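Form 7-S
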Amino acid sequence: MIHQKRIAVVVPCFNEERQILRVIESMPIQVDAIVIIDDASTDGTVNVVEKASQRDPRITLLRHSVNQGVGAAIASGYKFARDQNYEIAVVMAGDGQMAPEDFVPVVDPVARGEVDYAKGNRLVTHGAFKQMPTSRFLGNAVLSLLTKIASGYWHIADSQSGYTALGRTALHTIDWDIMYKRYGQPNDLLVRLNVYNFRVRDIPMPPVYGQGEVSKMKKRKVVFTLSWLLVKLFLWRLKEKYVVRDFHPLVFFWALAFLLFPASLALLLRLIYFWSVNGNLPAMTALAFGFCFISAMQSTCFALLFDMEANRHLR
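Output:
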């Protein structure tokens, strides 16, 4: 417990036979339950966990009959924590990349009731660029920027961090059955938390690599898949938060931007065509392109500014 709050740690696992025992043995004493979700591992992960559970009564093993993805494993753990009435659910990966000493800093603001969701942020710590693999650091930075826009939490970064703590109210509010099932789960969750106006905070922590972990993520595929997911989540959030549940005039600015950007592209293509064929630019077309593009940019900036102000209190 921390501040009299019962804590369940959710540990999603897939083929973590070499790492999971060290994760279990280093689990902080404040943890009341260790919920390990085996996502249909094909190695000896289950055997290792079952043996460890004989020594540590806090362990509960949940097993998926087929591999569903890390998001689905986390959702199963969240539902267990919700149904067992734990006040806080913490996610720690089964590959040993989450330091036990960061546990209290992540959990404390949620236990105190200051925020509803706290997450690690490895990008702001000194030397993070050198400690993280370059491709992962750059990919994470790009996805973090897109997640800021999609989620409305402009003060957060390192959206792919899996070291998180979720409070009881949010745990009972989110529909975990519709949560994205794979690597986009943290992004999906942030968007849904914003729709319900939950408070979110980043907790700076150093990245942990070189613990024998093996990445199962195909980076190029994940970046493109998550980018498309974030576009859909962004549009869903605009509808749910600013049209269905309440109304905000920023939807007019976004609507204008969505209309003017395609018009600008069409006019630009017309300009390129006339330049390549006739060697000159039609004055009216150039003027119309300039007007549409500048108006689209202004509408986008106003919409982003309104969104930032509307969510400033969710820190």
